[in-house]
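Exercise 7 asks you to align residues with tokens for two separate proteins.
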Amino acid sequence: MTKPPSKNPPKHLHASDLRGVAQLATQATLGVARIAEGVHQSVWSSLGVPGGKTPGKTRGVTGLVYKSVHGVTRLVGKGVDTLLARLQPALDSATDAPAGSPQRAAVLAALNGVMGDHLLETHSPFALPMTLRYQGEALNWQALPPMPNATGKVLLLIHGLCMNDLQWHTQQGGQVVDHGATLATKLGYTPVHLRYNTGLHTSQNGHALAALLEQLLAHWPTPIKEITVLAHSMGGLLIRSAFHYAQQAGLHWPGRLKNIVFLGTPHHGAPLERAGNWVDSILASTPYSAPLAKLGHLRSAGITDLRWGNVLDVDWQGHDRFQRKPDDRQPLPLPDGVACYFVAATAAAKRSALADRLIGDGLVPLHSALGQHDDPKRTLSFAKTSQWIVYRTSHMALLSSPEVTEKIVQWLTPAPSATSA
């Protein structure tokens, strides 16, 4: 007798998650074995014992043991992956393919932020595709959902590193704070959220977003007259990259882009990633610790792009992203003809040299969020009235601040025309 489907299927898990976990477990085992063998050979080398043909590899019986570990792990991992791939359709059917919960979405977003490039390269089911989402559902250009309230004013909300589109909906002191919903109510925007793999290079996501927005322009149920972007953290780098590549490709949507509001965007990078790069260099400086540097190399391309705020292909192509080097990005000015606004947060009560360059909002220094740089060629030029500093506020609190909402509404409210006056 066939067992009926569970009335209470796992709330936060999909059948494909089993396959993804198995893949990661296999890769983790292989990675740990490589690190162990590297440390092992470093010790042998200090005693004058030669290693294998490949640096960091042992030889003889020891090498055979490690080779056996790698071989068995790959064989078991492949078998498990093949089995779960065959079972996945049946498992999904049994659980009626439950919609992803906010908790699952948050975990996947964090995982993609940390190692999203690796997930994509290994064809992991955990790798997130880039999608535009309306009222929580991904837009399918061949079968758009009913959108009777869609307007010609589109508000695109772009989240930051390790985050997802659901996290724009927050609470502050029991009060719901949703910048997009407020702008929809007060100014007639139709919110569209972006969900993407934040572990990829910013410019890779920039190319993808440029193409996706052209599709939005072509398939939106009513002619789009205006696109306004509200971008948090890494999202601000992404829209600058997308605009640049869209213009290069001669796409049409940049002509509809009217406003960009940057919330805590690290235009010139973040010190935490630069500190991580220092750790890489220190670990690689001795033969004993060099194998451990591979642990630092787990962090994604998206994270290493935040060292200086890379937005273009040329900023990273042809370079070892873990090697220490100065800020040699190609300067990219703000989009021409687009009104740009900057919200920067600081945990300090007032401005100071220390607060501006080091403290900031806990993740992004104040001068980076404001586009300021010691090199005038890299400084982003904008009107002083287009910047606003929020004190005693953290990076994440920018999403849950009613004061930030009010400021955005103030900036985006059209000035009264001479006729109406």
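Second protein for Exercise 7:
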Amino acid sequence: MIWTVLQVALGGGIGAVARHLTSVGAMRLVGPGFPWATLAVNVLGSFLMGLLVVVLAHQTGGTRAAPFLVTGVLGGFTTFSAFSLDALTLWERGQGGLALGYVAASVLLSLAAIAAAMLVTRAVYQ
């Protein structure tokens, strides 16, 4: 049990650092005003989740890596709470249309990313 907790903690640290670097990079590339980093992280995280779920299921003992990769790294990397705050902030700024567009894009693109990753990765294993 302690080994699993340590895997999650280590993975979470790595994911959180990757998330921070994504935010810094997005701010430098496109500036403030729209939460591009959160959108990118949620879509990429969903894609990676789809890929990992299939790959780990096909690997002998692959589920042993799930606490580190899925719960830790991707849990630290993806940012649903930040997504919620970004959407509410846009709404409170009076940018209701932009807020709704952001929510719709985040949900639809993340679902498309996880479905695409699972489809492509399953095809590789068949």
